[in-house]
Amino acid sequence: MVGKTEPEAVDFIVKKTSWRILQVVEPGADGVFRHVEGLCRYLLAEGHRVDLAYSSVRGSDRLRVLVAEIERAGGQTLDLRTGNAPGWSDVSAFRRLRRFIRQAQPQLVHAHSSKAGALTRSLRFVGVRQPFVYTPNAYYGMGQGAGLKTRFFNAVERALGRIGWIIHVSEDEAEWARVSLGISGPRCRVIFNTVDTHVFTPGTEPDRARLRREFGWRPDALVLGTVGRLSNQKDPLTLYQALAPVMAAEPRLHLLHVGQGELAGAVDEIVRTAAITDRVRRLDYLADTSGFYRGVDAFIFPSRYEGLPIAVLEALAADLPLLLSDGPGNRGFQNLGLSHLHVAPVADVGRWTDLIRGWLREQTGIPSGVEARCNHRSVAEARFSWASGYGRVLELYGDALGAAASAD
Questions:
Q1: Is residue 161 part of a domain?
Q2: Domain that holds residue 362
Q3: Residue pLDDT, tens place only, 355-364
Q4: 407, burial (CB in 10 Å: exposed 0-12, middle 13-18, buried 19+)
Q5: CATH number of the domain encompassing residue 302
Q6: Span 327-354, pLDDT tens digits
Q7: Same domain, yes or no, for 75 and 57?
Q8: Which end of the chain has a smaller Cβ tally under 10 Å, C or N?
Q9: Distance in angstroms (rounded) separating the CA atoms of residues 215 and 212
């Protein structure tokens, strides 16, 4: 869990010899990409050379900016043009990634999430010798049943789990890997995800008023915000089913949701049936979510499982009250001594309805600006800074490169 270990902020000295690091990532949007985006910029600032293999299938304008930034800095880039589900495009992506590595000759390859992890580590079987680092950012099997698809993904992770080094972003993720996949040992490290506390900052009353005017909502609206794909993992159905009866009784309550996905139709049907269309706004995508966090009153996140969710860290840095599920990857937030944390069981609609009602009762009679008494931002600054997270990734790179040199 997050609170099991307490990383200290560490100032890492730029190494005399710069490294050439290839980052491989399949999603070009959402939390995993934002983590890779920050890591690339941290490495560049530390004097290292960065190459990037990505996929435009799930791309974004932020991805295009990062690609251009890396190329301007002298790095090479490759569009893998493959999605997150297994498919024939993976064969072409695998071959092109192998050629790319042979051409660019990075000293180390770091893959993020399951597709990039499988493509990259499989290269060991065709002679690619660079050290590999893999960050799962939540194993697929963590929140699934025992179906055929889950067994397939678990088998792949188990088979590749002995290749390279693994970064688990929470104690929950590391424990699940040890128990369910048999993956543990000195090459597995827990390094928490990070948040840029210079970008994600607390909101003000003008920020909140501006958001309400933008969406045509009443000035005294109480706005819950969430950021997450409309997918089974993020469980938007529980969120919307729980909200519907509360909205029926509380006309001030509104929801602002950033995300898209395969459950969009089911979510829209819940909204129509409950007649709450005027109080729910869903945006498919925001290039910059910092204004979103500054404009809402609290952050709600019913996800079934996570590695360590970037969106929750961003809300933490914005000093927002948190309404979270008790799912893997979220549980550790309960050990941080957070002042405004509310927790409900995964997929329990009734308990989520009660949780939202409880949060609303807390708002009655509270003067404007009371959220400034949250300790959430101070926790984000102390535990999830760039220096603490990305600095430890850089330290692991040194260990991996050193071990590879000793083996030669």
A1: yes
A2: 205-382
A3: 999 999 988 7
A4: exposed
A5: 3.40.50.2000
A6: 999 999 999 999 999 999 999 999 999 9
A7: yes
A8: C
A9: 5
